[in-house]
Design brief:
globular; single chain; 5 strands; 144 residues
């Protein structure tokens, strides 16, 4: 048995990688949104990422944070997050927050990416504030 090839979450890539005649393995696409979700949540909580643990479930770009805990103590951070999210800068991830307030769960992808799939709901939210948020995230990632 061969190890599967993993690619970006783009559905086309796994399909394309399994077409060449010489390729006999399997390919899957995995979304890295879970890591983005923790960053966004920690920005709202004002906590460092290593102190926060979350569990998410879903398919591809529609994953939702199911559990949010303080890593060391195991304390449920959901009530604190709900409180801080309500008072946080409204321009920060407006589509993600609209989904959170609608469904009670935080989606794992950023506004700009989720907005690709939910364009009518996204409106201007995905193309304005979240793009700057995604840029901030990229700048933060360069430190690690």
């Amino acid at each position: 048995m061969r190890c599967p090839i993993t690619t970006s979450p783009v559905i086309v890539m796994p399909g394309a990688s399994s077409r060449p005649a010489k390729f006999s393995g399997k390919a899957i696409g995995l979304c890295h949104g879970i890591f983005l979700a923790r960053w966004f949540i920690c920005q709202i909580l004002g906590m460092p990422e290593p102190e926060v643990e979350l569990l998410a479930a879903g398919l591809n770009h529609f994953q939702w944070v199911m559990h949010l805990r303080e890593k060391v103590s195991g304390r449920d951070l959901s009530p604190l997050f709900k409180e801080k999210e309500a008072a946080h800068d409204p321009s920060f991830s407006p589509l993600t927050r609209k989904l959170y307030r609608t469904f009670g769960l935080w989606p794992t992808c950023s506004d700009d990416h989720t907005g690709e799939y939910l364009a009518p709901m996204a409106g201007k939210a995905a193309s304005t504030a979240s793009t700057s948020t995604a840029t901030k995230r990229a700048a933060t990632d360069s430190r690690t």
